[in-house]
TrEMBL record:
<feature type="transmembrane region" description="Helical">
    <location>
        <begin position="34"/>
        <end position="53"/>
    </location>
</feature>
<keyword id="KW-1133">Transmembrane helix</keyword>
<feature type="transmembrane region" description="Helical">
    <location>
        <begin position="59"/>
        <end position="80"/>
    </location>
</feature>
<dbReference type="InterPro" id="IPR005804">
    <property type="entry name" value="FA_desaturase_dom"/>
</dbReference>
<dbReference type="Pfam" id="PF00487">
    <property type="entry name" value="FA_desaturase"/>
</dbReference>
<keyword id="KW-0812">Transmembrane</keyword>
<feature type="transmembrane region" description="Helical">
    <location>
        <begin position="217"/>
        <end position="234"/>
    </location>
</feature>
<keyword id="KW-0472">Membrane</keyword>
<feature type="domain" description="Fatty acid desaturase">
    <location>
        <begin position="66"/>
        <end position="294"/>
    </location>
</feature>
<protein>
    <submittedName>
        <fullName>Fatty acid desaturase</fullName>
    </submittedName>
</protein>
<feature type="transmembrane region" description="Helical">
    <location>
        <begin position="193"/>
        <end position="211"/>
    </location>
</feature>
<dbReference type="GO" id="GO:0006629">
    <property type="term" value="P:lipid metabolic process"/>
</dbReference>
Amino acid sequence: MPAADTNFNYRETGGAYYLSEQQRARIKQLSRSWIWRLELPTWSLIGVIYTGWFTSVIYWQQLGTVIGSVLLILLSAWYMSLQHELIHGHPTRWRRVNQLLGTLPLAVWYPYGLYRDSHIQHHKDEDLTHPEKDPECYYYTAEQWQYFPRLFKGIVRVSNTFVGRLTLGPALDIIDTIRSTIRAFIAGNRPAIIMWLIHFGLLALLFHWMAGYGISAIFYILLISYPALSLTKIRSFFEHRAAENSAARSTLNEAAWPWRLLFLNLNYHLVHHDLPTLPWYGLRQIYLENRVQYQQRSEQFVVSGYTQWFEAFAFTALEIEIHPFYGSENKVLSEQARHAVIDCAERRTESV
């Protein structure tokens, strides 16, 4: 693909950021193919995940605890990747239909609606890694960090190791979710309460049905859904970093095919943030066609695979504690003002 066109109006109203007019035309061409128009890869994925999950439960006794657990862990983690795809408008253009396809709580922990709303907020790239605005942020403001107990600071540091993220990371997320649920009920947040009641009702029905095949609710929560959530933490480990350039905040992880399939190519995370409605089966193709440009755009925030993260940070913590730019809301405003002054000066220089 040709280099980025500097005269091209990159960021569109819908949030898509194209490297060039040629890239936009290329994606439009791909979207006209019958495979993309019919969303066959995503429909196939839905069929495989649901069939595999229910079959694994029905044949639990025949599969045995070990094989059955491994299958359900993988399928539950895969289901969470599917839910992410549904949030971004696939496989149908109807939001309600996509929601129905992802509402069943196979992964237990989060209602689809809660995940959808927080993730859409996360896609405001200008707020990526902002401790007070990005719901998927691991950073804190200096004011927040100052008042944390020493024990909690230690837990955060441990959770910033690769092993710690897999073991403690899910627990921290679950605790935050429980706290937000309690706040919603106390505040009388009717939409949130309805969402949670539907989630709990479906979960109760699911646990009751699984119990008939020998899988208890406690076993499923502790030994299947928690490990499944841990698997997703592999993908999100150092997925974003603090950087003044918003494009340099999202990683490009050239992972092996099993990880790419499990995470539906979200390892090419900058491409996903630039083109959030691009289907999962197009992310790798678009990345490879523009590999050099994307790596430059990310300011070389590129890794060769998840093994690289494990080797570097298995027991060594990432420096993700106090955000280096967002000490407070006033700091954010001053940064915005500084960039506005720079942009204005550059325009004056160009006009001269």
